[in-house]
Amino acid sequence: MSKLITMNVDGQELQVEEGKNLIDALSAVGIHIPHFCYHPALGFDGNCRMCLVEVEGARGPQIACNTPVKEGMKVSLSSESSMNLRRKVLEFELINHPLDCPICDQAGECKLQDYYMEAGLSKSRMEVEKVAKEKNLDFGCGVVHDQERCVLCARCVRFLRKYTKTAELGIVNRCDKAKVTTFPEKPINNRYALNVVDICPVGAMTSRDFRFKQRVWFMSSEKSVCHGCAKGCSIYVDHNQEKYKAERVYRFRPRENAQVNGHFMCDAGRLSYRKENENRLTTAKASERFEAVDIATSQAVALLSAAKGKAVFIVSPSWTTEQMAVAKSLATHYDGYLSGYADGYIVKGDGDDLLLKEDKAANRASLELLGISTDRQKLISNLKTAEVVVVLNNDLSLTASDKREFEALFAGKQVIFVGSHRIALADSAQTVIPCASYTEYAGVVVNVDSILQEVTCAIEKECFARRPEQVMAALSGNAIKAELGAVRQQLSASVPALAQVDWNAIPENGLNLKGGAQ
Ligand code: SF4
Ligand code: SF4
Ligand code: FES
């Protein structure tokens, strides 16, 4: 943190970070200055004037987004004259605004709405007709644009120039004819496009996927980590349970984290929330017949007990560190071999310099921390002599060659599949036990840069009441520890890199295992 300086806001003495602009410096101490065009990831543009504030000694109102804080500075935000500045800017913004809040997807999280309510502007003084513009424009990549709601802050334009460097958007025309547009026959086409929906401060950019699905005030949000690749972007999981319906995840949104993903996330990760609702494994199977979970579990315990020393366990590289530790205990309990083989999760050429990684496993780093082998040859040679194979949510059918080879290796063996989704093995295994997916349990994952982050349980579905660690404990006849606190203690004692982790105070932006919290 840089040096702290003392300044005065509305008569209150505050200590803020030197070198920051007024918006960022005051936001860090909980004071929000209304603004549209400024975004910390895009810098200042100065086009909206929504952030005008009065600074003692300055010649006229100053834009907070381009005014650095100074020692002894006195700023007025809530005086009548400061409020008036905001009212006037808002009045301009609203001259041609369609005021369609009741059918706008942004309602409830719209800055224009919030500022209007704060500044207490009431009736429009306009007597001429509003300028009509186009609505429901398909900008590509699932981005839908409403020109009438746009405040022309240019955040979307700047994001595509500065961040993705694809520059698909521009602002054309002037005054009340100005509008954001794509170039002829060149829609938005990049893997981070839906971030423009988040950074648009109003309802001018909406997501085709999320539009009209939920009112945001009905949803709850949980902090978690995207499991789409090894980057592990910090996210919010927005979910809701509608009357007579099962609880569902409705969207993932990026959660600001300077040491992982900044302010953004990729579209694939964002839309991967769908997997939490779709193709879920809900029924257990024993002797190739649908059975109750307890019957399938008892059968699996009998099979494993009879094959002591001849069982192979293959754990998912995306399960939490705690679940991997429980898998290790389970394998030890049956004198079995544990593998975390996951070559199929690597998609060559699918990474980039922004966030996306080629490795689609969320927690491969923990396999290494826990000393779980990922060696293909070792797994194959152990499988050759095994009688029982327990696949712990590891998808071995991600590449055609893996699918072919492991199907052949599994032939003639008893295969037990514990999983959250209906992958190929859910049909072919003789014993199947469903379990929760990552929005339904808590734990930690470690990303490709050694940042340990917490995954929180967002929703609890009755049909997946059992978390993976509970299933594994049942598979051991409850002989192994699976309670989160106990597993974490065991991890701190046995894994040097986790020895210093304070499990009750993991920072929201994660813990850098190579250099502490940042
Ligand atoms: S669409 Fe949104 S982000 Fe883009 S200029 Fe308009 S208000 Fe700003
Ligand atoms: S970059 Fe990876 S972790 Fe981040 S949002 Fe995309 S898929 Fe998820
Ligand atoms: S936020 Fe300062 S001028 Fe727009």
How would you describe this structure to a colleague?
This protein is an alpha+beta fold. It is 24% helix and 19% strand. It is built from 14 helices and 24 strands. It has a five-stranded mixed β-sheet, with helices on one face. Helix 2 packs across helix 3 and helix 8 runs parallel beside helix 13. The chain is elongated and about 85 Å long. The structure holds iron/sulfur cluster (SF4) (2 copies) and FE2/S2 (inorganic) cluster. The site of one iron/sulfur cluster has 13 residues, from helix 6.
Defining traits:
518 residues; alpha+beta; 5-stranded mixed beta sheet; 5-stranded parallel beta sheet; 24% helix; elongated; binds iron/sulfur cluster; binds FE2/S2 (inorganic) cluster
Compact overview of the structure:
The protein has about 525 residues and is an alpha+beta fold. It has 14 helices and 24 strands.
Unreliable segments of 5+ consecutive residues: none
Main sheet: which strands, in order across?
Answer: 2-1-5-3-4
| Strand proportion | 15-25%
- What is the helix content? 10-25%
Secondary structural class:
alpha+beta
Question: What's the count of strands?
Answer: 24
**Small molecules (ligands, ions, cofactors) in the structure:** iron/sulfur cluster, FE2/S2 (inorganic) cluster
| Beginning-to-end CA distance, first to last residue | 10 Å
Shape: elongated
Summed up, the helix count is 14
Look at the structure and give the mean pLDDT: 95
Main sheet summary: 5 strands, mixed
Radius of gyration, in angstroms, nearest whole number:
27 Å
Oligomer: single chain
